[in-house]
Write a structure and sequence with these properties.
Layout (H helix, E strand, L loop, with lengths): L8 H12 L3 H24 L9 H13 L9 H25 L8 E3 L10 E3 H14 L1 H12 L4 H8 L3 H20 L7
Antiparallel strand pairs: 1-2
Helix pairs in contact: 1-2, 2-3, 2-4, 3-4, 4-6, 5-6, 5-8, 6-8, 7-8
Length: about 200
């Protein structure tokens, strides 16, 4: 889902940079400019969750924004950079929630999530924690590919936006996406008991 261009990129980036240095008005000015897109990203995350999930998109938006607004460590490069990190925070919140929920269930219970065919998995449903673990393994092998999966699959950024955030060419972003999808497909469809 490409981001809308209703608000100039520069305005959002300036507000992010002002927020980073502690300008209390910047966050208030920023929220109306980004809320709709944050909510769309959260809704995309929630589409992959079970129907009776106890978290809602709005909670996910608020949690991500609070975490990101509370940090002065990030040098905001662009609007796309902000949305990429917001999506990563949302995924982390959902994974933490799944771990907490599973701790209350029988040992080995995992939360199932629906995946679009974007990852190339033949099944529509995979385990959220298995997906997270696969992404963590991918990150140890190739951090950039993991980030591209997060930005493309979870944040819905297009290749131009991904290339901008990562400082790479669109061609490289597309190649890494293809390689990461193939790797994740293998990881998510192999038999956990080692059977061929």
């Amino acid at each position: 889902m490409p981001m809308s261009r209703d608000v100039p990129e520069h305005d959002v980036t300036v507000l992010l940079q002002r927020m980073r240095v502690g300008d209390s008005d910047a966050a208030s000015d920023l929220v109306p400019l980004i809320y709709k897109e944050l909510h769309a990203i959260a809704a995309k995350h929630m589409r992959h969750e079970r129907p009776n999930h106890t978290l809602q998109s709005t909670v996910l938006v608020h949690e991500a924004f609070l975490q990101l607004a509370g940090t002065s460590k990030v040098d905001w490069q662009s609007r796309a950079h902000f949305f990429a990190l917001a999506s990563r925070v949302m995924r982390r919140v959902l994974v933490d929630h799944a771990r907490a929920a599973n701790a209350d269930k029988r040992p080995g219970a995992h939360q199932q999530v629906e995946l679009e065919s974007g990852l190339g998995t033949p099944e529509k449903v995979v385990d959220l924690l298995a997906l997270n673990e696969a992404l963590e393994r991918l990150a140890t092998w190739d951090q950039r590919q993991c980030q591209i999966v997060e930005m493309r699959f979870f944040a819905g950024l297009d290749f131009e936006e991904i290339a901008e955030v990562m400082g790479i060419s669109e061609r490289t972003a597309k190649r890494d996406w293809t390689m990461a999808r193939a790797w994740l497909h293998t990881e998510l469809t192999k038999d956990p008991h080692g059977a061929p």
